[in-house]
Amino acid sequence: MSVQHDPVQRADFDQVMVPNYAPAAFVPVRGEGSRVWDQAGRELIDFAGGIAVNALGHCHPALVGALTEQANTLWHISNVFTNEPALRLAKKLIDATFAERVFFCNSGAEANEAAFKLARRVAHDRFGPEKHEIIAATNSFHGRTLFTVSVGGQPKYSDGFGPKIQGITHVPYNDLEALKAAISDKTCAVVLEPIQGEGGVLPADQAYLEGARQLCDQHNALLVFDEVQSGMGRSGSLFTYQHYGVTPDILSSAKSLGGGFPIGAMLTTSALAKHLAVGTHGTTYGGNPLACAVAEAVIDVINTPQVLEGVKAKQQRFTRKLQQIGEQYGVFGQVRGLGLLLGCVLNEAWKGKAKAILDAAAAEGVMVLQAGPDVVRFAPSLVVEDADIDEGLARFERALAKLTQA
């Protein structure tokens, strides 16, 4: 039976919502695969993926099935009890990674909050309160809580909220000498994104991650990888640390983990996990049966050779066409990234105009993202059809043709 809803429109946003977002002028109402329809029935191709969240597109049958089955079984039981979907998902994550223990929460920020608290607790227990300093990268992004936004290296997000969390240093990304100069025996953790997402879709250099691992080992610091955006098949490996062959001590995941259903996870080893004893950390909804049932279906689909190999093939298809478009219209020179997290770096003449390109693309019926003002970002479904790639990029090209003629 269908429920009758009161009509709403985009103008209502400005009347009822806190003004911390500036959403598009159209309102999406339905999605299927890599296509989305708005209130007027206009169809768009989705290369934004809900900011790297909709890893299997919209309304994937495996996810709809898992959610529906669980919705008719058990929604919430609290952490006074455990539940079957959480245990199944934890086992699958452990079997597929370096991890031996998992903590479930609801978002990337919460996964990072847990990761940073664990790192500080481990150092406190093993070495004392002096060892609490965290080193992160300039232009990094780790979430919006006070702790995670302080670790993130973008002052525009952390300024203006009173005193910041102390003991956090930022060093340039991919600069091993700068990290070497900053790290000390007071460092409890080095926190890095293997691919900087919000910072401009910037993959780490192999030597940088290897060097960071060695420096952490030398200084008894933990290496934390934030794989909220780069994880769950996005790079063509299940997690990007596997692509580099550099294993962290703690890893955070969210976004694609739930394929659109809110869930986050912190993965670590047994030896570290024991420092979060009963009562030291928690979350009301974390590990709830609905989220875990959906995430289990996500990992079952993504962690297969055909999907992960498909990501690499689709990367080639995107990159070839984007490089051709960039050269033809003189808008961007470099296409960088890994797997299906790609960034077109705008050239001097177009610097600062990523939002204008995003808007022009939407007008032509294709949804893209920006990663800062100078990079147009693509984070489509990992199973996007080749026909959708071709059609979406044709629309993107039309948008650039109009912009450059204007």
Based on Cα principal axes, name the global outline. globular
Unreliable residue stretches: none
CATH topology of the largest domain: Aspartate Aminotransferase, domain 2
Helix content: 40-55%
By DSSP (H or I, 4+ residues per run), the number of helices equals 15
- Order of strands in the sheet with the most strands? 4-12-11-10-7-5-6
Rg, Å, rounded: 21 Å
The appropriate CATH architecture of the largest domain is 3-Layer(aba) Sandwich
Q: Note the main sheet.
A: 7 strands, mixed
Beta-sheet strand percentage?
15-25%
CATH class of the largest domain: Alpha Beta
Total of domains = 2
Total strands:
17
Derived structural class: alpha/beta
Overall average pLDDT:
97
Cα(first) to Cα(last) distance is: 49 Å
In CATH, the homologous superfamily of the largest domain goes by the name Type I PLP-dependent aspartate aminotransferase-like (Major domain)
